[in-house]
Amino acid sequence: MSLKLLLLDELQGFVKSKITIILWIGLPALTILMNFLTDTSFSGILTYFTTILATSIAGALGSVMLSTSITSEMNKHVYDLFLIRPVKRRNIIIAKYVAVYTCLIAAVYIAIGTSLVIDTLRHTTINEYIIEEMTKSMITAFFALGITCSFGTLFGIAMRSVAASALLSLYVGNQASSILTLVIPLISQMMELEFGVTFPVDPFVISMIIGAGVAVGMIVVALLVFEKKQF
Amino acid sequence: MNALSTSLVRFENIEKSYKDTKALKGVSFEIKKGDIFGYVGPNGAGKTTTIKILVGLIRDFEGSILINGDPLDYGSNGFHRMLGYLPQDVGFQEWRTVDHALMTFGRLSGMRKEEVRERIPGVLELVQLEGVRYKHIRKLSGGMQQKLLLAQALLHDPEFLVLDEPMTGLDPLARHHLKNVFQQVAKKEGKTIFFSTHILSDLEGLCNTIAVLYNGQIVKIGSPKEMREEYRARDIVEIVYADGAPALSDVSGLDMVEEVSMAEDGAQRILLKRGNDLDSSMTRLMARLVEQVCKVRNINLVRPTLDDVYLQLIGGERKP
After folding, report:
1. Which residues numbered 80-99 in B keep a CB inside 8 Å of some CB on A?
2. pLDDT at B158
3. Among A71, B117, B156, B246, which is least packed by CB within 10 angstroms?
4. Which helix (H) or strand (E) holds B174?
């Protein structure tokens, strides 16, 4: 009960926040801008590039938003008023994580939707291979954002300085998400090219499993740290 | 009926350390049902630490706390259901309106949405915030936010109110109003209040029991009356004379008088020696005033305030 209530509450808060509004308006605007910049010379698929760009920007802003919001709220003792009620401690953090994550996914998918519309208007030929790659990119975005947000949550809880939690989540979170979601497909490609060895399982699937594992693992660590906190 | 039957909260030998600093050194006391219990001490004495341990914000401590005779349980149906807490120095999520914040806190306290909606106007009226129900919290002054903290503590009609420095940041009028609110909820609604402060005047006429905490230890517990009596400083009689009338000049033979002085406001102050019977001293003094035909407008016995008691306790030889 308290989780649902907290989640709806946090969603309301983040939907009203300036960063979310910037993401929801800014990312589609960037997509439209890219359309104008690439109109004459670009022959690729705008949607594909938008996915990568939007995920990268949303991941960076999202992890910073989450970490700074948690650190500053802990410094201001905002959670005291929640913790003295019959509320499970972990629900406070889970609600915040899911709320930010949902806002980010929405922002990325709004940008991707905008680029799909642009691609359609530009009569770009979208074949089956491109659709498969785009789907993979969207799923990668889903997991990459999960990782950056989980790091943002952990640093938000562990740090006392807002600046430190922002910097750590920005650099460590983004680097971790890039490495975990891109490194396995890269290794598999290199192995195939250099040694002719193919992975027994689709490397994309492996990297998604690792991504999900890391995100869940980081959140569990963050929840354990929060459970032990003395306010 | 045993002693524990009226005890709502019992602290037993509570100890808490922060790295090298021992914040609480074996604190033991009990709060009885219906008490307005004042918890007094200078800044850094350990008041907020005690309160945070009680409400579950600090769980790493030694000793035990009993609620209604049972060990403290913070579970979903435990102590938090009966607790209303006004913390010191906390912030709200400022994107919320007053109404939204109260709705959230009420719901998290286990109330139904309709119940919270019904209760909000009454609570806001009680703390004099009825005009700002739909305002954003970031637009409220510090004093208003303090009142909102009290509103959220009272919202779910808790049996036990824990107030950590509740008067901080309030103007004298608001302080007076809040004192009336506390009296109202304690006397009319039968709530138990645990109230910490370092400003003794906040407790005057409000608390029936006071515990003085100094340097992590309880140095005194008792009713305000008992404390005044025990720590009574020498009495002072203040006499105001009619305009231009001469003051009492001859105190010879009045062996209970230690010192006579004139205050800047024109009143004469007669310091009585310790250990004399007050009633007989006053009778003899008034007889001398009549004898010397002094035109007296007012005679006032200056009794020690709680501040005087407090100063003696933590500033004098009795401190540990």
Report:
1. 80-81, 83, 85, 87, 89-93, 95-96
2. 92
3. B246
4. helix B172-187
